[in-house]
Structure formats: structure tokens, C-alpha cells
Amino acid sequence: RNLLDRDTFSKSDPICVLYTQAIGNKEWREFGRTEVIDNTLNPDFVRKFIMDYFFEERENLRFDFYDVDSKSPNLSKHDFLGQMFCTLGEIVGSQGSRLEKSIVGIPGKKCGTVIVTAEELGCCRDSVLMQFCANKLDKKDFFGKSDPFLVFHRSNEDGSFTICHKTEVVKNTLNPVWQAFKISVRALCNGDYDRTIKVEVYDWDRDGSHDFIGEFTTSYRELSRGQSQFNVYEVINPKKKGKKKKYVNSGTVTLLSFLIETEVSFLDYIKGGTQINFTVAIDFTASNGNPSQPTSLHYMNPYQLNAYGMALRAVGEIIQDYDSDKMFPALGFGARLPPDGRVSHEFALNGNPQNPYCHGIDGVMEAYYRSLKSVQLYGPTNFAPVINHVARYAASVKDGSQYFVLLIITDGVISDMAQTKESIVNASKLPMSIIIVGVGPAEFDAMEELDGDVVRISSRGRFAERDIVQFVPFRDYIDRSGNHVLSMARLAKDVLAEIPEQFLSYMRVRGIKPSPAPPPYTPPIHVLQTQI
User: Fold this and answer.
1) What's the start-to-end Cα distance of the chain, in Å?
2) What is the phi/psi pair of residue 491, to 5°?
3) Residue 29 pairs with which residues in a beta bridge?
4) CATH topology agreement for domains 14-117 and 126-262
5) How many CB atoms lie within 10 A of CB 54?
6) What are this entry's molecular-function GO terms (predicted)?
7) 275-510 CATH
8) What is the mean pLDDT of residues 5-32?
């Protein structure tokens, strides 16, 4: 909208070029270009960019705009109209997955705005629940009737068939009713509604030499009409049909029901406005070492982040895209606080217990450094208070509009194991997940136990309803070559990869459906544009 006008006699002819950035090096690579739209400052580009999306990775994007002056593919031959930087997460995490941002890059000029929308390609997330019965099938057994079952095949591009489902066998009947079965649309027809689906009817024999009764073909589109006269199929045996003049069919198969179930995804909730609230809790116990000493895990090195700072930034910079107000509560535990030296296991890093929120990840880092200067590292290492702190908030919004992620960074020597397990078992019923990053050289056996990947965590005989804890040791990610960018991207990926599934498991158990996304942006009608 409102692009700069660079043409003397007419309006600009804009094109948009998208660049992506590799994680390790900061080099921008061209990903693709839209079409050129002639003679307008308010283009609606049609060409879409299809990219892979991972919640746990930060994908930097750059959109460059040019006024195209000739047929040359070389961008330096055209007028630069400005650019916009964002992350894929920022677009996806915006209200309705629609981001509007100013175009920058030409000093002293207003370059207009760009509106980017993202949608998940979800053609193949549906599955279908179907039930069939048959009537008057051919009798194939010498004694008694047939034992029929159905075999479904999807057709491939080259005309061959691939088996995709077998029903159970119904014994001794020519009028079987099979149980309903569920199959993904992808498996049934590769997401192509008009592709042929071949169904064969067999009579089961104990020795495996099942007798062919007949077959029929259909398609997803036909089946989706549900129970109707269109979904009664004649079962034909081509051999019999060729031999016998009077042959009509070998029975009929009828579709009794057809129900489409759409698997909802993490992005459906984000698009519907679910917010992810991010809270940080930092271990201020004495076992970390004196912050003024280089050996301390809390050492404030002016030239480089310590392990706490690196872990916080790695995880926080990705999660912040999904939190619209970018205000993050930051807590500390295990320190003596001024003025009276009382020990606290949930204190606000910014010194304001009524309002522990910090603005953005930078605000959290600032509050962390400030606290290090004012509090005394002490002990013991208690996790339960900060877990219960977040759980209190999570317990107050169980409608699916918010989900809470607590990041605990610790040197791992935990003192309140029993209480922490109790807190985690209680929290597993709430919309929250816990990430624990262990820094330093300690044994992290207790953390592995809290992670619950091997044995589901329990407290006093009660088991956690879902797995909500993800633990990683920081030392596994320290790159010997000193390239922290790549190693921190790997750390974030590993701790965040489980969150979408943990999030979905909460929503599923509670039966919470995503809210509908707000209506898409429609440009004003009066702007008529021609597209080449």
C-alpha cells in the first residue's frame, strides 16, 4: 500500500522479491519473486511463496520492493522502493496470521506498508469415518455361506493401484455389515477427490486362498455424498460377466455413513488468536558460583553472554513472536533479597513483585543483570514455587485462549524434588508446558526424571495427565568452534519441538476447538487494477 512513485509519466510497476537467511551465516538468499503489476502504488500480488514452517526454528525473512523498468532480471537495473524485515513466526503469530508493517530503507521517505498473510496448506489433514454393508453376495463356500471382507485400493498417477485398507471378515453371511473404519484422505486418494478408488470383495478362506467375489470403483467425491442412491454399488465379477449372458451382478455394497474429521493443527489455534505466554525463572543459588568470578555460571562478561543469557535469548526470541504484548514475567529463585536478606523462591527480577513483567527479551536480560548486582546467591534450589506461580495464572484461563510456557534455567541441584513432582502432576492438567535448561557441569539425573520421557512422572500414586516437561543440558550444545549462533538455534529447536504437541494434547483432552480466524483483509473495492 502507498508505495513510492518512481516513474515520471505513470505510476510505479512494482515487484516483490523474498529473501531468506541461513541460520548459521547471515547471508540472504533469494527465495522467489512475485509477478510485476503495472502502473499501481497499491498492488495485490497474486503469486504465493510456499515455505516450510517449524515452530521451533526462527526463519528470518526480507521483502524487497522494486519498480520494474525493463525486462532485465537483474535487480540493480530497477528502482529500489524499500524493504521489510520480519520472521515467519511473526507473520503466523499475528492476529489472523496477517502482518502489516512499514516498508523502510530509503532515508527521509515514507515508503508505504506491506501486508503479508500466511496460511497453512492443509489439504491433506482430513480423515474419513466410513461404514459399508452388502446384500446378496455370491455364495462361495461349499458348506454354509461366504465370509466376506472388502479391500480398498487408491489409484496412482501411472494407473496402478496401491492397497490402502482391508475391512475385518464377517463370518457366514451374504449380507454383511462391516464395522466403521477411519482412514486419512491422503491414504485413500492422495488428497485428489476425483481419483479412482477400487474396492474388491473377497470370501475369506482359512488357507489364505481367498475367493474373489467381485469389485466396483468409486471416488472420494462420490463417497462424500454420504448414504444415498448414488452410493449403492453393484459388485461385478468380470470373468462371470464375460461367460454368462444372464449375469447381473454378484451382489451390492452400500455406503451406510461417511463422516469427515478434520485434524486441527497448532497453527489453527494460533491463527484463531490463542496467545502463548512466556515466563522465565532463573536459578540464583550459591552453587552457581560468585558472579564476579569468571568460573561462575552467572559471570557477567562484558564481551559475551553467559550460559544463562544465551539459553534465555535462544528460547525467548522464538517464543516472543507468539505473544502479542511482548511482556514477559521474569522470576528468580534461591537468593537473599535486599534490604533484610530474606530468602525467596519466587522474586521479580525487576524488583517489582506487583508487576514482574519485562518488556521483550531485552527487558528480561536487563532485569536479570540488575538482579545479579543486588541480590545475594543463596539456596536451597526449590522449583515448586515458580511452577505454582505460573500454574496459578494457567488455572484462571482454561478456555484455550492462552497457553503458558515456563522456562527454568538452573544449575540442576534440586532440593524440593517431592514438591516439584507434585507441582508438575498438578500442572499437567493446566494449559502449560515447562522447559528446563540445565547449565554447568552437574549430574542432571533429577532433571531427566522430571522430563518424564522414559517414565511418566508421578507423585503420591498420581500420574501426570500429559508429559509437559522438556529438559536439555546446555553443555550438549556448546560448539567447540565458538559458533554460538548455530548451537543456540539447535538448543531452541530441541526444547521447543515438543511444545506444539503438548499444546495440542491439552486442547484435545479438553475438547477445545480453535476459534475462527478473524475475517481476511479485503482491499477497498474502488481500486481497479489490471494484471498482465
Assistant:
1) 19
2) -60, -50
3) 20
4) yes
5) 14
6) calcium-dependent phospholipid binding; metal ion binding
7) 3.40.50.410
8) 89
